[in-house]
Amino acid sequence: QMRQRAPVFLRVNLQKATVEQAVLQLKEEDVLAEPHPLSDTALRVTEGARRVSNTETFRDGYVELQDVSSQAAIQSLSLKTG
């Protein structure tokens, strides 16, 4: 049986904030998150996952819900800015 919720991952919008800034903003809104090693933009929510969508950090586009594997796949591509 699956009694635990699936992990929640966020993608930091680097045009609006650094990963460190996003972590601090979320913490001020009672959501704890930590960088994930698979992607430079990924955060794993460790506490307060149900509150994410109600935070200003989320509503203002500093972070969005996105699985870490999707972030890692895009990061592995050699894309040019723009």
In short:
This protein is α+β, with helices and mostly antiparallel strands and 82 residues long.
Task: Present the secondary structure layout.
Blueprint: E1 8-12, H1 19-28, E2 32-35, E3 42-47, H2 56-59, E4 63-65, H3 68-75
Describe this structure in words.
This protein has 82 residues and is of the alpha+beta class. It is 27% helix and 22% strand. The chain has three helices and four strands. The chain has helices at 19-28, 56-59, 68-75, and strands spanning 8-12, 32-35, 42-47, 63-65. A four-stranded antiparallel beta sheet has the order 2-3-1-4. A hairpin with a 6-residue loop joins β2 and β3. The termini are far apart. The relative contact order is 0.24.
Number of helices: 3
**Would you list the SSEs in sequence order as H and E?**
EHEEHEH
Can you count the beta strands? 4
Strand content: 15-25%
Widest sheet, order of strands: 2-3-1-4
The general outline is globular
DSSP helix fraction: 25-40%
Oligomer: single chain
Radius of gyration: 13 Å
Could you say which structural class the secondary elements and strand pairing correspond to?
alpha+beta
Integer average pLDDT: 94
**Poorly predicted runs:** none
Could you describe the largest sheet, including whether it forms a barrel?
Answer: 4 strands, antiparallel
- Gap from first CA to last CA: 45 Å
